[in-house]
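Risk register update: the risk of archive-format incompatibility is retired. Evidence:
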Amino acid sequence: MAFLLFAGYQTSKEDDRTWAVYKADANSSSYSPLSQINTSNVNQLQPAWTFTISDMKPGSRSGSSECNPIVVDGIMYATSAKHWAYAINAGTGQRLWSFDPFDGAEGGGVSRGVTYWEDRSSNGKTDRRILFTAGDQLFALDARTGKPIATFGKGGKVSLNVGLRDAPETISVIPTSPGIVYNDLLIMGAEVSELYGAQPGYIRAYNCRTGKLVWTFHTIPLPGEPGYETWPKDAYKYAGGVNDWAGMSLDLRRGMVFLALGSPSYDFYGADRKGKNLYGNSVVALHAATGKYIWHYQIVHHDLWDYDLPAPPNLVTIRRDGKTIDAVAQITKHGFVFVFNRETGEPLFPIEERSVPASALPGEEAWPTQPFPLKPKPFARQWMTEADLTNYSVAGHDSITKKFRSMRYEGLFTPPDLKGTLMLPGTRGGAEWGGAAYDPATTMLYIKSNDSPEIQTIKRVDQEQEARDMTVFDQGKSLYMTYCVACHGRDKNGDEPNYPSLIGLKTRMSREIALDKIRKGGGKMPAFASVVKGKEKAIIAFLYEKEQNSSKMTKFESGKTQAGAEKYLNVTAYGHFRDPNGNPALRPPWGTLNAVNLSTGDYEWQIPLGNDEKRQESGAVETGQEGSAGPIVTAGGLVFISGTQDKKLRAFDKSTGKLRWQTTLPGVANATACTYQVKGKQYVALSVGGSKDNPSGFIMAFALP
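Archived output:
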């Protein structure tokens, strides 16, 4: 662990707290009231300082930081791609302290930031703490020094594996987004596996002083709890998922916390969880002090598409008939915006339950209807035809046309099928974890959207039989081809930057570290602890290219499920629909930025965001690109957003969508920006991924001259 003290650093009375919480505030608004940087001068924006992170070993693969830094009284707090925590002078970029939560061991995965808590009543002194997660641990650090708070949990940390369904030593729960503070409570969601045998994604609240678990909300209800009847009788014993991995929002005045919950596991086959599966894919309102249920709305019934709610709900206020209504706006992967009365959960625009296609998979019972809001209209494409297929070459077009014709496709909510199924939007489509930005002055909501079709390829899993006569190496290959190939490819080359190449893994990572990552997951990779249990030698033999032809496997387990239930896997989950040369199968735009007026439900503007110059047709508009980072909006009339593969940070006029400024960054900034003021000067800052010269990445700040 490394520490640097504040060395007498003093904050200014002019310093504010306009970005002291993940996504700006408890409302998850991503809005700033600052206006020093505005439409008239943003073209003068220039680099103010760069903090170079250096917590990776030389030769490491470039990190992809998703951290949204927070700033409290002139101090920036952030995490790196390796999960180190940092305190930085927000006016100069000088490091004040750093904390290695792994004490020198290998770390990593997704970390989207930290949470700040303070108490001014402790013996006349202000107790300031940074609360953040790394691996399966929740840490509390002294905000002044970066040292663990000894009285919090055990030596400054609490195991997040404690308090779920199964024994702590057999699981690993790894949150990705920061918790949110209500009085002395830190309310947390978690990232859990999306495979068979996943843990339930219970919501938990911890005491900020002691680390003690105060309350738990069962997202998969136990017997006697509301929603239990929407599952099979014993599902609470084996079903998993239904977790809040993207963050949450908080109405401080009403004492209400709002959750955006994900899908039940397994994501693409639910024969062992027949029913609506509450509170899967639901917006849920709870009493923040107790975790008691207030209301919910389920946005996808019995999810078979991994349509998690991907971002925190935005707490908004809309205007209707001369009145203002406090509301909740939830964006989705399948391209809808749902708007509810904040107190009651009543929809503020009409929603229809429409019939959707039935499943033909053995044992599966897809829910016969799904909710369709009539306003606002979808912000992502939800339908495609052969006319929408790309034509980069005759052979490529013929290949994707043949594939398109071979699949079952009946539009949105076409269920997984042994024939193969097209998904649009896909699991990375529509909105992503960066979430939306809300402007209270105009009731405008700004949404980044992806158009990213995927192919579902469903395969029945009978690996126990298959394993009997296999060598260790062959069984490792079978595991890889079942669970890993969709992301890392048949040749292990991956799909950078989201899915790293595994070629030459043995030169970059020890077998022990690789196995730990496989078990625990991280980033877009789910935890595979239940999958590799008893088969550790097999997957390592394959990944490290070590044939062991004389050895046989005798045990093959693949996760807890309903007794006797069949298992089906989507073996191309999370993969793009592309032609043989890797070109997108769907015509652009592949990414857009959208502005919707929540008071009327109408769009003010929609524009492509990002550009793939190699695939842009001559004279055509920009292609747009996929991206997970979200926008921020300011009183200066600007929307800032990064996250596209062209490495740009851009500023748009929030009223028109006109580009006002852009700059090229040293790496992909797959993170939402922040803006703050120090000593009367406004800055825009963001985490930037690693480069060839510095794989650890950067934090960069921009300001006017």
